[in-house]
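Duplicate of #3305? Posting structure anyway:
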């Protein structure tokens, strides 16, 4: 055995140990120092009722023989799913009461009508989980809702803002007073997370497992956002200029603030979501430039809901959702 071997091995061992120590230190620093708020500013549970935007679609049949639906039990529910349970529950799905993606409670008159807008492309396995899961979740909430899938049916760069504008136009034309903009990979875990608008825009997905259940920054509105149709029109919707992943939601947050609206949230124990796994999309490196250009030029007046361009569009009702197919 050569003489140098024990020292070499020792050095190797030490190096390995140091490497481990350094790695552990990095992990600890990451865990504690990553930005994010667990205790973000939020509405108090006991005050939520007075912030609720109680509007129903005028086309919904209200029957005098039925009582008004109750929501206290939902808002006070402590039932919650663990992240690993969420993806299993859709197995026992029966589409009772659902037509064209729409549902209204049978034994009471709801006081909320909500259009759920989901922008989509090439995520079939997520959609297969999302649709039954959401119907199971929403049917327990005593609300009237309709799910729209807005699919970009071309290979051009992804344009989420534009797709939301198209979905919003359709939902507004169908008289929905409240829009919930929803990522297809997010599933709500808390039964108390009532799918309804407030008098101000409401960021609903404040506490996502992927982000260790913290709010990563205060102006985040991506993920799931509830906004009244009137407010959406007032902001002129989303900018149509963001292509690829990211930025359009941050730009939308700027529009919210420029219009003197605020971003409200429920407490974190009512706002938890699990994110379905997927490969991170390529980020749009131009997003910060577009954002600052939009802000400095106050582009929101002529870039948004009033300037949506597309090649073709089709609206097809399916039993579990209404599909809006778009080529941009
Ligand atoms: C992007 C947003 C995104 C957020 C959280 C930001 O860098 O610009 O679009 O919602 O990260 O993932």
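Output from current build:
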């Amino acid at each position: 055995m050569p003489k140098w071997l024990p020292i070499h091995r020792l050095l190797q061992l030490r190096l390995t140990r140091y490497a481990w120590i350094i790695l552990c230190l990095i992990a600890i620093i990451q865990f504690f120092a990553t930005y994010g708020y667990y205790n973000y500013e939020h509405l108090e549970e006991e005050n939520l009722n007075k912030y609720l935007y109680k509007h129903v679609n005028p086309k919904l049949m209200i029957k005098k023989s039925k009582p008004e639906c109750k929501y206290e039990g939902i808002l006070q529910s402590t039932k919650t799913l663990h992240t690993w349970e969420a993806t299993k529950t859709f197995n026992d799905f029966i589409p009772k009461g659902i037509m064209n993606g729409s549902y209204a409670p049978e034994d009471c008159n709801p006081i909320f009508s909500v259009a759920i807008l989901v922008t989509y492309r090439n995520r079939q396995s997520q959609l297969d989980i999302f649709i039954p899961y959401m119907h199971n979740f929403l049917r327990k909430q005593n609300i009237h809702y309709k799910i729209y899938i807005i699919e970009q049916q071309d290979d051009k760069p992804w344009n989420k803002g534009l797709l939301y504008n198209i979905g919003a136009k359709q939902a507004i034309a169908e008289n929905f007073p409240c829009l919930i903009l929803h990522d297809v990979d997010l599933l709500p875990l808390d039964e108390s997370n009532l799918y309804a608008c407030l008098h101000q825009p409401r960021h609903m997905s404040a506490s996502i497992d992927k982000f260790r259940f913290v709010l990563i920054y205060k102006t985040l509105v991506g993920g799931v956002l509830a906004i009244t149709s009137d407010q959406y029109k007032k902001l002129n919707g989303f900018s149509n200029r963001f292509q690829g992943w990211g930025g359009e939601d941050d730009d939308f947050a700027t529009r919210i603030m420029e219009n003197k609206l605020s971003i409200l949230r429920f407490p974190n124990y009512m706002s938890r979501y699990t994110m379905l796994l997927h490969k991170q999309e390529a980020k749009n490196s131009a997003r910060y430039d577009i954002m600052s250009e939009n802000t400095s030029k106050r582009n929101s007046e002529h870039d948004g809901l009033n300037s949506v361009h597309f090649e073709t569009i089709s609206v097809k009702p399916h039993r579990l959702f209404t599909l809006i197919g778009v080529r941009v």
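Confirmed duplicate; merging threads. The pocket of beta-D-glucopyranose is lined by residues 222, 246-247, 249-250, 287 (CB under 6 Å). The chain has two domains: 1-34, 37-327.
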